[in-house]
């Protein structure tokens, strides 16, 4: 993220251990409220080892980012500025999937929440065994319930 109020941006994170996701908590330290979607991936196949441009807006001089990973939405909402100087822990209700993962993506709409949107930490919480009542993963490591 290199420009203020860029519009659609995202952060992709990989954690050390795979879990069946129960919750995602973001620590927003400045200009909170820009999160528009939180997703998970069963298999991450994009190459994030090279610099790339996510949007063709004329500001970035790199190659387009690869976007071959299939993302499943855990939460979606409308970004809205939250006028506070306090640090905020954002923990939206998530849609539980029967997919074990260590990879999530946080989509932001930085244009709707003006200023530099800053995050200090992200916590991925879950279980090692699939609890009953999860949405099916559609194959792979996840089991359909």
Into how many domains do the coordinates divide?
1
- Helix-strand sequence: EEEEEE
Query: Total strand count, please?
Result: 6
For the termini, the CA-CA separation is 38 Å
Number of helices: 0
Strand pairing plus helix content: what structural class? mainly beta
| Share of residues in strands | 35-45%
What average pLDDT do the residues reach? 81
CATH architecture: Sandwich
The geometry reads as globular
For the biggest sheet, the summary is: 6 strands, antiparallel
The gyration radius over C-alpha positions equals 16 Å
Report the oligomer. Answer: single chain
Helix percentage = under 10%
* Uncertain ranges: 138-145
Reported by name, the CATH topology is: Jelly Rolls
């Amino acid at each position: 993220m290199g420009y203020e109020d860029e519009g659609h941006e995202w952060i992709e994170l990989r954690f050390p251990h795979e879990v069946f996701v129960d919750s995602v908590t973001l620590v927003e330290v400045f200009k909170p409220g820009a999160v528009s979607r939180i997703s998970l991936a069963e298999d991450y196949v994009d190459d994030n080892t090279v610099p790339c441009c996510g949007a063709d807006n004329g500001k970035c001089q790199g190659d387009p980012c690869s976007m071959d990973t299939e993302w499943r939405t855990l939460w979606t909402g409308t970004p809205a500025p939250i006028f506070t100087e306090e640090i905020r822990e954002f923990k939206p209700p998530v849609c539980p999937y029967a997919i074990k993962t260590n990879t999530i993506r946080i989509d932001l709409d930085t244009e709707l929440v003006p200023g530099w949107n800053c995050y200090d930490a992200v916590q991925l919480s879950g279980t090692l065994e699939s609890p009953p009542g999860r949405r099916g993963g559609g194959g792979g490591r996840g089991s359909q319930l």
